[in-house]
Amino acid sequence: MFIYKFDKTGALSGPMTFPFIPGFGPHVPGDTVLLPEELPAAQAGYCWVLTKDSPLQVVDKRGTVYRIDTGESVQWDEPGELPEDLTTQPWPGAHHLWLNGTWVLDEAAQSAVKSEQALIRRDGLLQDAQLRIAPLEYAEKLGSATDAERASLEEWMRYCVELNRLESQASFPDSINWPQMPQLVHRR
């Protein structure tokens, strides 16, 4: 007889030997089963389980699996096929969704996020530029702007126009040609 231990899911491990107690025989715990023959090694990707007091090979996908709705990793402890909402395929990352049995990149979602990030950066640069432009415009309106300040004002204004046209670039948002920020004018 061969002794196999089974867990709460019915998965078998063994064969095992247990200590012999004189006068009683081997000490065999309640979570074991006696089988008349030793089980052969399970095929790759399978394990032995106890079903209705008989061993049976079933698919073994225990371990880290992934939710197909979120990509979140979860621990799966039961032998057998996975529920339909889980997969063994690791989630590749953001903007991937489960389609026809595999993860697929949602290019529209990825592009939308890239676009949003670029526009947030652009708007921050435009705000910074306005802080540089305002004093130069004041000097121009007051008639006290130097030639260097007038040239700087024109550079900053061109810079803002170029920033505002980012979305019209053919490769936007995947590849963006960011305009060069003008040099600051230092008074001496």
What letter string, H or E per element, gives the SSE order?
A: EEEEEEEEEEEEHH
- For the largest sheet, list the strands in their spatial order: 2-1-5
What percentage of amino acids are in beta strands?
A: 25-35%
Straight-line distance between termini: 99 Å
What's the average pLDDT? 90
How many structural domains can be distinguished in the coordinates? 3
| Rg of Cα set | 35 Å
Shape: rod-shaped
Structural class based on helices, strands and sheet pairing: alpha+beta
Helix content: 25-40%
Oligomer: single chain
Number of helices: 2
Largest sheet: 3 strands, antiparallel
Give structural notes:
There is one protein chain. The chain is an alpha+beta fold and 188 residues long. The chain folds into three domains: 2-59, no CATH class; 63-104, no CATH class; 108-168. It is built from two helices and twelve strands; from the N terminus they run ββββββββββββαα. It has helices spanning 107-141, 147-164; strands spanning 2-6, 12-16, 20-21, 25-26, 32-35, 46-51, 54-59, 63-67, 73-76, 86-87, 96-99, 102-105. The strands form five sheets. A three-stranded antiparallel beta sheet has the order 2-1-5, with no helix packed on it. The protein has a three-stranded antiparallel beta sheet with strand order 9-8-10, with no helix packed on it. A hairpin with a 5-residue loop joins β1 and β2. It starts with a strand and ends in a 24-residue tail after the last helix.
